From TrEMBL:
PANTHER family (UniProt xref): DELTA-1-PYRROLINE-5-CARBOXYLATE SYNTHASE 2, GLUTAMATE SEMIALDEHYDE DEHYDROGENASE
Entry keyword annotation includes S-adenosyl-L-methionine: no
Gene3D superfamilies with a match to the protein in the record: Aldehyde Dehydrogenase, Chain A, domain 1, Aldehyde Dehydrogenase, Chain A, domain 2
Reaction it catalyzes: L-glutamate + ATP = L-glutamyl 5-phosphate + ADP; L-glutamate 5-semialdehyde + phosphate + NADP(+) = L-glutamyl 5-phosphate + NADPH + H(+)
Pfam families noted in UniProt: Aldedh
Domain of life: Eukaryota
Protein name listed in UniProt: Aldehyde dehydrogenase domain-containing protein
PROSITE patterns in the cross-refs: PROA
GO biological process: L-proline biosynthetic process
Pathway: Amino-acid biosynthesis; L-proline biosynthesis; L-glutamate 5-semialdehyde from L-glutamate: step 1/2; Amino-acid biosynthesis; L-proline biosynthesis; L-glutamate 5-semialdehyde from L-glutamate: step 2/2
Keywords (A to Z) from UniProt: Amino-acid biosynthesis, ATP-binding, Kinase, Multifunctional enzyme, NADP, Nucleotide-binding, Oxidoreductase, Proline biosynthesis, Transferase
Family: In the N-terminal section; belongs to the glutamate 5-kinase family.
Any one Gene Ontology molecular-function term assigned to this protein's record: ATP binding
Length: 317
């Protein structure tokens, strides 16, 4: 999974270039007036978009993150300090060189700085008079460490423990397509499915058996919660709060949509969760009560993506 995150093939570079062009073509967000109110005669308040200032963004292993983050910072008028994982240091150095080489002199090459040594992070985290926001993009451990070491506001992006819940009224052909896409398309991504929840009435049905067979055919290893372990005789999972980032997932049976919601809110990471159902009432309940950044009805978790949402790119969730 680490190699998959670090690899920059031709197709990925092309899609990165396209996403940067999409950001470049967007309306300039800075100095855009959101609201103008005359609160009293000749006393006018204006609410406007403005840059945050200087951002320090620490990310692990994924070099394409550097490109997306730099593009967003330039578009939004923010200064940027970047610290990537040591595994991708050469890729990050080259990408940084490419980006800064095209920044006009009137703006300045130092708008985007690349921090190469891990030792420099501790000193940077003390600069609360200079740096306005820290965004750690990586593991829960990384986010917690950064929060404990600085007075600078921290926007934390941690785990991607995404769920797909198959309700008893689901179209099983649709469910199979969604689950396979969510798990198999790019398992190292933070929006890949890690836990599959299934309504108990679907246990031992032809539709579910077919789905599980397809996952096995693709090479997905399935671990079971207590109920799935007993009924399907699959290896028992150690924890429901687990991000595989590989061709493996957890499966568990739940009593109903409310049980699925409770499970997700307890064990999930508030990233992306999906319900597959033809029952509008169940779908509405799920969409309203799951406390995640993105909640989907009959769509793969892989659709949670800044570019896919028309934003050009993303930083964290």
């Amino acid at each position: 999974s680490l190699v998959a995150r670090m690899t920059l093939k031709a197709g990925k570079i092309t899609s990165l270039a396209e996403s940067i062009r999409a950001i470049a073509d967007m309306e300039d967000p800075i100095s855009h007036t959101l609201k103008k109110t005359e609160v009293a005669k000749d006393l006018v308040f204006e609410k406007m978009y403005c840059p945050l200032g200087v951002l320090l963004i620490i990310f692990e292993s994924r070099p394409d993150a550097l490109v997306q983050i730099a593009a967003l910072a330039i578009r939004s008028g923010n200064g940027l300090l970047l610290k990537g994982g040591k595994e991708a240091m050469r890729s990050n150095t080259i990408l940084h060189k490419v980006i800064t080489s095209v920044i006009p002199d009137v703006v300045g090459k130092k708008l985007i700085g690349l921090v190469k040594s891990k030792d420099e992070i501790a000193d940077l985290l003390k600069l609360d008079d200079v740096i306005d926001l820290v965004i750690p993009r990586g593991s829960n451990r990384l986010v917690s460490q950064i929060k404990a070491q600085t007075k600078i506001p921290v926007l934390g992006h941690a785990d991607g423990i995404c769920h797909v819940y198959i309700d008893k009224s689901a179209d099983m052909d649709m469910a199979k397509r969604i689950v396979l896409d969510a798990k198999v398309d790019y398992p190292a991504a933070c929006n890949a499915m890690e836990t599959l929840l299934v309504h108990k009435d679907l246990n031992k049905t032809e539709g579910l058996d077919d789905l599980l067979m397809e996952l096995a055919k693709e090479g997905v290893v399935i671990y079971g919660g207590p109920v799935a372990h007993d009924t399907l005789k699959v290896p028992k999972v150690d924890s429901f709060h687990h991000e595989y980032s590989s061709m493996a997932c957890t499966l568990e049976f739940v009593d109903d949509v409310q049980s699925a919601i409770d499970h997700i809110n307890r064990y999930g990471s508030a990233h992306t969760d999906c319900i597959i159902t033809t029952d509008k009432k169940s779908a509405d309940t799920f969409l309203q009560q799951v406390e995640s950044a993105a909640v989907f009805h009959n769509a793969s978790t892989r659709f949670c993506d800044g570019t896919r949402f028309g934003l050009g790119a993303e930083v964290g969730i």
